[in-house]
Automatic annotation (TrEMBL):
NCBIfam families: GGDEF. Residues 310-463 form the GGDEF domain. GO terms for biological process: cell adhesion involved in single-species biofilm formation; negative regulation of bacterial-type flagellum-dependent cell motility. GO terms for molecular function: diguanylate cyclase activity. The keyword Transport does not apply. One of its GO terms (cellular component) is plasma membrane. The chain crosses the membrane at residues 31-49, 61-79, 99-123, 135-161, 173-195, 239-256. PANTHER family: DIGUANYLATE CYCLASE DGCM-RELATED, REGULATORY COMPONENTS OF SENSORY TRANSDUCTION SYSTEM. SUPFAM superfamilies: Nucleotide cyclase. This is GGDEF domain-containing protein. InterPro entries: Diguanylate_Cyclase (IPR050469), GGDEF_dom (IPR000160), Nucleotide_cyclase (IPR029787), Rev_trsase/Diguanyl_cyclase (IPR043128).
Length: 488
């Protein structure tokens, strides 16, 4: 039975609506009016049918007792499974209670069919655990559909006992099909209209459930029709069917468990694949792209900009005297400097830019839709940020040391050592080539020129120089020491 269209609770699922968060006092007046009208009409019809309970025969009471017993046994045994299925459901929940209510509608007097449906709903409430106003409206929808389906059968005058003649028996089949469609359609459309009033932006067909759900519901109604025909001649029919229904309910529960398990495995596999893909393209020390990731994403960005006739600026960045940092303070200190440079690049660059570590102390940055002037300004900001770094780390003897950028002023603290700066070469497409490798070649040439002319500066390819003021004294001394070492 599609008795919980109001139980949608999986955000992002097709047809989802936040019905689970509805509060009675927050409903729109139109929705409250619709609820009250439906509930009043159904209640009046049910009370009118209950007035005829005195005229019910003994055979009907016996069949009624069998149906009530079957409903009770069914719902008590499958309670835990139904709770799990409802929790896993991302749309309209379909159970098998229509077998009993539809059979009661067509084989029992209207008063007993009403009582059977109400008893079924009383047993369902501890499983569904819905708010009272939602439970009452769902009950009214189910009871209304049950009474309409029974009315189609009883008003048609068709006999539920086989006559052995083709035409009357086929007419009975058509009547039962019509009753099942009326039962199913009345419930589904009633709740769909209510949800449409509350969430006008949602299409009604999104509330009607999937094809699989509706096929299960119609199959359940078909089984209820056969049980109703059997009950007219054998009151033990519900007792014979209760255990097959419980078995089918168990199979549905196991199928739902397997599907949920497979969905979890699929999600975990997708997450693992995404993580492996990220790890395969990420330099773990800096958090930037590695060589493979840089080649893939930078090429993709360059091709997109070339297709859109947009300039692309390439920065080749190299840390000055990085080997001296490793030799003097140890590789942990060098790794800490690399990690801090990676953080600076992630902060200074735009979301659409590509930055990666191209091995050792070398970095490459590709700036989308960026001309030479803007790219040079970005390179200056990066150089200044690197030159103003302060990295607290440990030396090779595990003593705490603070490595500082060469742009910072001198201090009297012996623990602070100015040792960090960067040289940057700048090239831009299409001025410096036709592809990314051409631009990298020009940027590397500009980087080498920056190294040869004092370091800690930005140089533009093709001889356009962007020099800083004269190198600081300590940097000149370092360069002189390097020259002496090479001569020796």
């Amino acid at each position: 039975m599609k008795n919980s269209l109001t139980d949608r609770k999986a955000p992002g699922a097709v047809g989802w609506t936040p019905i689970g968060k509805w509060d009675l006092w927050s409903l729109r007046p139109a929705a409250l009016t619709y609820f009250l009208v439906v509930e009043s009409v159904v209640a009046a019809a049910a009370l009118w049918l209950l007035t005829s309970v005195d005229s019910v025969g003994d055979a009907d009471w016996l069949r009624f007792a069998a149906v009530m017993f079957a409903i009770t046994v069914h719902l008590m045994i499958v309670r835990r499974a139904e709770e799990s299925r409802r929790d896993e459901s991302s749309g309209p929940h379909i159970d098998l209670t229509s077998v009993w209510t539809f059979a009661a509608a067509i084989a029992l007097p209207g008063a007993l069919a009403v009582l059977a449906t109400i008893w079924m709903r009383i047993l369902i409430q501890p499983i569904a655990r819905r708010q009272p106003h939602r439970f009452v409206f769902s009950t009214a929808s189910i009871l209304g559909g049950t009474m309409l389906g029974g009315a189609v059968v009883h008003l048609s005058g068709a006999s539920l006992i086989a006559t052995g003649h083709v035409v009357p028996d086929l007419c009975l089949v058509l009547v039962l099909i019509g009753a099942a469609v009326v039962n199913w359609g009345a419930q589904g459309m009633n709740i769909a209209v209510a949800l449409k009033i509350v969430t006008p932006h949602t299409r009604i067909k999104e509330f009607l459930g999937s094809r699989t759900d509706n096929m299960l519901e119609l199959s359940t109604l078909g089984a209820g029709a056969m049980l109703g025909m059997l009950m007219t001649t054998h009151w033990v029919g519900p007792l014979l069917l209760v255990f097959p229904v419980i078995l089918v309910n168990s199979l549905l529960y196991r199928a739902a468990e397997r599907r949920a398990h497979l969905e979890r495995l699929l999600r975990e596999q997708e997450q693992l694949h995404a993580r492996l893909t990220e790890d395969a393209h990420t330099d773990y020390r800096t958090g930037l792209l590695n060589t493979n990731g840089l080649a893939e994403y930078a090429h993709r960005l360059t091709e997109r900009c070339r297709h859109d006739n947009q300039p692309v600026t390439v920065l080749a960045i190299d840390l000055d005297h990085f080997k001296r940092i490793n030799d003097t303070w140890g590789h942990p200190a060098g790794n800490a400097v690399l990690a801090e440079v990676g953080r600076i690049l992630r902060e200074k660059l735009r979301p659409g830019d590509v930055a990666g570590r191209d091995g050792g102390e070398e970095f490459v940055v590709v700036l989308a839709d960026t001309g030479l002037a803007q790219g040079t300004a970005i390179a200056e900001r990066v150089r200044e940020a690197i030159g103003e770094m302060s990295v607290v780390t440990t030396d090779k003897y595990r003593n705490t040391v603070t490595l500082r950028g060469r742009n910072l002023p001198l201090t009297g603290d012996d623990q602070e050592v100015r040792a960090i700066s960067a040289s940057i070469g700048v090239a831009v497409l299409p001025e410096h080539g036709e592809c990314l490798s051409d631009a990298q070649h020009y940027a590397d040439a500009a980087l080498y020129a920056a190294k040869e002319n004092g370091r800690n500066q930005v140089r533009v390819a093709a001889g356009e120089v962007r020099l800083l003021p004269a190198p600081r004294l300590d940097q000149s001394v370092e360069d002189a020491l390097d020259e002496v070492t090479r001569s020796a």
